[in-house]
Amino acid sequence: MTTAETRRNLALIRQYWGDLLAAIDTDPQPVWPPQRLTTEMWARRDAEAAVERAERSSDALGDSPAPLNLDAAQAVDDLTTEILALADQVAAACQRPPIQPPRIHDGTKGGAQLAAGLRAAADLDRTDPRRWHYNASWARGVHWGAVYIDGRLADDDLGDGLFRPIPPQLARDVAIIADHAARRILSVLGIGTLSTVIPDRPCPWCGAELRLHHPVDEPPTVTCSTGRSCTAPVGLDDRGRRFWAWHDLAQLATALDAAERRATPTTQNGHHR
Predict the structure, then answer these.
(1) Phi, psi dihedral angles at 171 (to 5 degrees)
(2) What is the pLDDT tens value at each position of the chain, 273 positions in all?
(3) Smallest Cα–Cα separation from 103: which of 89, 88, 118, 92?
(4) For an engineered disulfide with 244, which of 6, 215, 218, 248 has Cβ 3.0 to 4.6 Å away?
(5) How many Å apart are CA 113 and CA 117, to the nearest integer?
(6) What do you get for the CA distance between the two ends of the chain, in Å?
(7) What is the C-alpha to C-alpha distance for residues 25 and 263, in angstroms, rounded to an integer?
């Protein structure tokens, strides 16, 4: 795996870490609607999740109700340990230890001034914001850990002696762990799959199977399996399938909801008609 590929995986970790944290308090994401569809749909879903979580909290023992998405919670726990421990290893190999301030001087005025200057320099070096402070930096979280590791892979700030180049074997270890972490995050969030059938939601225009496509770093799209004969008011992709681009998905969501309502038996005086 190249350095560029490893850095891309570290960027994916940073990009989607917030989404993974948010996923802990929501039920596992269904295939439809896609996570990024509309602010309004997610606002309703978040409100429903908050109500459900409050109901669970009222009956639960202790102060910490169980997460709604156990896969997301486990991924956060595992990957937090893996990424931050990896940053500790990288810092141990690449980062110069802090300058130690002098504890005594020769008793002269000049010696006192020199010692004061050295202590000030040591303080600046110790608090340099580029530094990784081993376990103390864990409080800053996975995002900062990934940023720090990426900087060492990119050979940032080698000129002033604070950092050394990352050893080749450690760079290979970073590549393996970053690849695993990025894959797991995307898997939990349902991102990066080539295509997924939308279950129980056929095309409102022809009744055929719909597929959701959600590649990494691109907005989701949907295709209909029928082809040109489908009468949906959207264009065709390069394989001749009706194709809903990102800006068409709200229209598709409305049509699917309307079709579902038509298929649901109405009630009159509490009885199905």
Answers:
(1) -60, -35
(2) 899 999 999 999 999 999 899 888 877 766 677 665 644 455 555 565 556 555 554 444 455 566 778 999 999 999 999 999 999 999 999 999 887 776 665 567 666 666 666 666 566 767 788 999 987 788 889 999 999 999 999 999 998 889 999 999 999 999 999 999 999 999 888 787 668 899 999 999 999 999 998 887 788 899 999 999 999 999 999 999 999 999 999 999 999 999 989 887 654 555 554
(3) 118
(4) 248
(5) 6
(6) 62
(7) 31
**Residue listed under structure tokens 């970790």:** 13
| CA–centroid distance for 183 within its chain | 10
Q: Which two tokens stand for residue 184?
A: 């797991």
Residue tagged 């649901």 (tokens): 264
Instruction: Tell the residue number behind the tokens 């070096």, with chain if given.
Output: 125
Q: Find tokens 């639960």 and name the residue.
A: 60
Give this prediction's pTM.
0.65
| Helix 3-23 with 70-94: angle, nearest 10 deg | 140
HSE-up of residue 123 (Cα within 13 Å, Cβ side): 6
Structural domain boundaries in the chain: 3-189, 196-262
SS3 at position 235: coil
Task: Copy the structure tokens of residue 216.
Answer: 């990494």
- What tokens were used for 119? 């202590």
